[in-house]
Amino acid sequence: MCDRAGIGAVWLDDSAPSGAPPADPLGRLRKLVPVVARARLGAMLGAPGHVATLDGLPARRLELTLLGGARPQVERLLERFGAGRPRPTLAVEVGDPERLDGERLAWLAGVADDVLVVAGDVDRVAERARALREAFGLVGRDPGSLGVAVRLPVSIGRTVAEAAARWDGEPAFAALGPPAKAGVFGTLEHCHERVIALAHAGVTDLRCVLPGAPDIHDVIAQATAMTVGTVAKLAPGAPRSPAPPPPEGWGGRSRFPRPSP
Q: Alpha-carbon distance 209 to 225, whole Å?
């Protein structure tokens, strides 16, 4: 359904509910390979052993995010792909940019295609995305070549009440705090404004955690309309486009004509 709707990537992670067996995102991605023909396939991995189980996955369509950003885990993954071999797009999770020293920044700039900003308050996420792009620029990485991803809960509805009902019905969202601060929330117009603000802060990839609503097909359809199009036209910090001029003759006649003097 996501593939037909035009979603750019389908993401799975290796988190599991308390008491459940460990998740296997790469195993689940293998089941999607023959089904998903257009979208890229992504996995967010926290367990180091997962990097050794990439067989059977199309490297050119695969995106991997290493949670925690442990250097040995990243280097072990890179060793699997020699020079000239296609490798997955690699993202590394990063924390507060103010706590990243120059050595780690330089290392990340050399190995990571993208970075995943730790989620939290949405406004804080935007601030971190902007700071990360500036920090990578200082160590010689072209900010234009850096993908900045953020994983956020999304609850969208035709009304705020519908969005709230979907949010309240998802147990995973219960402890996240007020939805307007914790995620992309509200009507299509509200969510579109939020996505534009994130794009202006330098976020290039929004990984939507969708509520398990019975009408999930409707949520996915609305999410596709929430996107901003070509992020290249939304340079970080660029001013908003001016509103289009009114149609010719619009407002030229008084609604209540006055008699001629």
A: 16
